[in-house]
Amino acid sequence: MSRIKRNYPDPFRAGRRQFLGVTGAGMLATLLPGCSGSDDNDSPYPQTIAMGQQMIQQAVSNTAQPVAGISIAMLKGNSVVWQEAFGVSSVPSQTKATPQTRFNIGSVSKLFAALAAAILQDRGLIELDTPIVHYLPTFTMLSPEYARITTRHLLSHASGLPGTNSRNLFTFAPVPGYAADTQAELANTHLKHLPGELAVYCNDGFTMIEQIVLALTGQSFASFVETNILAPLKMTNSSYLTSVPTSGSFSYPFADGTQYQEFVNAYATGGLSSTPGDMMNLAQMILGGGVFQGQRVISAAGIAQMGTDQSTGLLINPSPEWRWGLGWDSVQQPALAAAGVLGWEKDGGTAFYSSEFFVVPQAQFALMVTGNSGYDARKLAETLVLSALKEDGTIAALPAQVGGTAPPAASGPAIANAGGIYGNSDSPLQVVANPDGSVQLNQWNGPKRVWTQLGAYQYRSDGWWWSNSDPASYRFTVVSGTDSAGNAFSYRYLMKRVVPGAGYAFLTLAIGQQLAPLAPLDSAWQQRLGTQWTLTNDSPTAVPIVILGNEPAYLTTLSELPGYVLYGNTDLRYQLFVPLSDDRGGMSVKVPGNFGRDLYEIRFASASSATSLTLGSSIYALA
Predict the structure, then answer these.
(1) Contact yes or no for 461/477 (Cβ under 8 A)
(2) Alpha helices in 502-610 (DSSP H)
(3) Contact between 479 and 491 (Cβ < 8 Å)
(4) Which residues contact 604 (CB under 8 A, 6 or more apart)?
(5) Residue 284 and residue 297: Cα distance in Å, rounded?
(6) What residues are paired with 397 via a beta bridge?
(7) I need a labelling partner for 337 at 20 to 30 A (CA). Which of 29, 114, 212, 438 fits?
(8) Are 326 and 308 in contact (CB under 8 A)?
(9) Total Cβ atoms within 10 A of residue 42
(10) Rounded CA gap, 118 and 9, in Å?
């Protein structure tokens, strides 16, 4: 459910801040195809397997954009009924991928953070609804409400933490200390929303689980998971890449003629390297209520809690089909829900890999697919899971596909008040209410520093605005109420409706929040407009530095929205900041789902006649 920017042709156009749960559809380089693997001829799913083999082979053989390698496994009951790898693990050597080839599974790793927390609860060391400051007294933030953040908030994306610590997230060599760096960063920033107020995809929350595990057990997160989860589950081809591995078979990214190994230093939020076969052992334990091969790894209550809908108490939730679990993206997976089946889903994306993990308790079924970015993992997984459920009789027929042709035009509501600028974590949007009742949507083109027209949209009989060329549709939603501090609020969101994956269910998401003009910028901020800034403290092995170069970020403002500062580049994306003082800019939006996910505060400091800009824990100097 967290993959919402799949239309980007290059993963880094979304920015490294957007990964670990948001995967682009493209790659950094053209990869060479190949295929190897094996399957079980006695599988109860011959039709589904044959279809899957064809779909994956097409992906690795696509002449326009081949995918180097894809690996898949399928579980029924306690038996792995299909396990196969396609393509190559190494492009230069054309080494064939095997079922033992490890891939970085990105945010599917979040399930292990949730499992670790459940194990700590089983041992009486934590309670999910107790504020984490009881377990991690060194944790602090500038907003006093930080003291209300609970472990449940961390694991369900409802904590209010800014999003993703951007520094040394993806590197080509291991960089230790990411979790401690994240905690230090959080001490210098405010919450972006009150704990439990809304749910917006948040990697920082899972990174803080690392610090809680260390504080309570004295073990690093990686060591704790390897001892208490991976070893009991016999996941012998899974590990956190805390150092350069000396054994094992790995898939290697290949970019601009060079082969690398990708390291994800945010272990709890996205750092596990694994295989689909190993993940079927995890699935067996989940389906077994915490028991794997006769050994209890976690309580049945812990597994059930992970699979419980955590969205029911949210104050701001304009997209109710987002059913967050603890670690899970969805505990009512929309395509399966359309077929009348309860399913749990977690996706994952890194700079180079894309993964999907499905567990269907009713059918005692699971599927994991992982591979180099460049294929639609969700579409493949949904297609195969639903096909298998039909083949084994769990469902009588596939659900009807949705979307398609725009419905007839209709008389729409007055939308004059909906015009203006909408902020998010990606790029500002402009809404123009035309006299004829149509809506013109524009998006800020950061590199060119101009508005790009997305199109004109007419109101239709289904209550959404459509164009004749865009398969997505749009509408406006106002969410009003009183927050937990007693303050009244009212937010207008631009909503986008898409049909992701295999096309069986709509997904709505808030893509921007309407912002009101503020008082003009004071002289301190005016003097900074037009300046450019270069990152200074990332590791030289950081993936964006190596692949993209150190692109300067710029500071500007929008003439259509006085009082805000716009800052960003291709990597960071483009965010609107509210001046809090002459040396600090704050977050401007509360957007649930994903388009408010990686927000930051911006700080300026001067020393020895040089001025620095700090964004999170990243430090920039004047270019």
Answers:
(1) no
(2) 523-526, 543-548
(3) yes
(4) 528, 583, 584, 611, 612, 613, 614
(5) 11
(6) none
(7) 114
(8) yes
(9) 8
(10) 38
